[in-house]
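REVIEWER CHECKLIST
Item 1: Sequence provided? yes
Item 2: Single chain? yes
Item 3: Sequence as submitted:
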Amino acid sequence: MVRSPNAPARILAFDLGAESGRAVLGELDGGRLAVHEVRRFPNAPLALSGHIHWNVYALLDEMKAAMRDAAAATGVRPDSLSVDTWGVDFGLLAADGRLLGLPFCYRDVRNAGAMEDYLKLVPRTDLYEATGIQFMPFNTLFQLYAMVRDRASQLEAATDLLFMPDLFLYLLTGRKAAESTIASTSQMLDPRTRDWVPGLFQAMGFSRRILRPVVEPGAVLGPLSDAVIAETGFRDVPVVLTASHDTASAVAAVPAEGGHWAYISSGTWSLVGVEEPAPVISPASLAANFTNEGGVGGAIRFLKNVTGLWLLQGCRKAWAAAGDQATYEELAAAAETAPRFAALIDPDDPLFLNPPDMPAAVAAYCRRTGQTPPATKAATVRAVLESLALKYRFVLDQLRDVLGHSIDRVHVIGGGARNALLCRLTAEASGLPVVAGPAEATAVGNILVQAMALGLVRSPAEIRRVVRESFAPALYEPSGPAAPWDAAYRRFRGILEA
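Item 4: Structure as written out by the authors:
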């Protein structure tokens, strides 16, 4: 498998999300990128002894199968490969390099109360000043504190902590690293120095010895291990540290230029924010609970995590279990005909974190807030999508207030860019044009950061130029009278404040 010097560069990206994973092969030729999916596979957490774990070995087997598929499809080895995943979760290694059990899922019950308990040791204002990170009960810092509190034997035996993408790269190469964009999700990193904050570990009587030195995206980690080469045939394929947090890769691929633009990286989560040259850490950003996560080229992703299509995924899962196998496209089409603003929910209410029945949780929320629950699947989907659009408007308003400048357009990237109804509702709710695409932004960003590591792309700005020239976006302009949306927004704000 040898590439001709004049052939396009071929780069393999593994993009692992909380619902599924996929391998995407990019071909970069003449400043234009084409991508095609090599393999898609489910990511089904395992319920074991009352806890939720990630099945990393099943995912690793799928990744190796995808490598064999890519080799069979092209007959040419890729020029590099890398992995991105969701944030905050991690695996622990023993001194001999073994993985100490399957990593826990961030939705696991062990995290209950850990954030509140930790904030008794380090005050909220001090922790935010040190890290600039949004307070969420499953951040890595609080997961670790839950293990310290519960005297977890795995933690006592651990010599290394590896975040999920770093763990997969270790399983592929045998080399350990802590890539900065994924490390920045942990609430343990100083966004100004991009190094660990030692006092946070001392406060809970825990050593930072298990943390690796932080490395910026765009570095070459090394070759695949001999065992992986034997299984896949991928000899002489360098493994790159891309922007390993999936949102960091997605934001790197926003096809924007100039002006004050915002992005919504839309998938299981919706990450609503802007890109800033330096951290924004202030009383206003703390009060609004914004986060400062690392980006490519030293940029800061100033954003807020909003529960996203997880709500729709949960509804579809419940309906499928009852025998209704409607696709997302069919559900969206049905929602077009449902009454507007019949019921509104706060997507971030704890009720929706991991309910056994998402439609029942939506109905319970409506009853709790004095609303009539949706009576049909179409009405439930409509309520979810309208509520997401209104939550996006709420966060965009907060961004304007905290940053003190306007926002003139919104780029929707990721899988949600394919949901035409959600994109249209977002334009109408926000009163801003919505530029949707690329839907494959995470894989595209992963691939192009690898290309930067290989010297094929020079800068983050050139990454965005390649995206603009390679993928045609869809444009959604606000239409119709604003008054109904303004009335719905006032009602939505009232629900949030109550």
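Item 5: Key structural point noted by reviewer: The chain has a mean pLDDT of 96.
Item 6: Recommendation: ____
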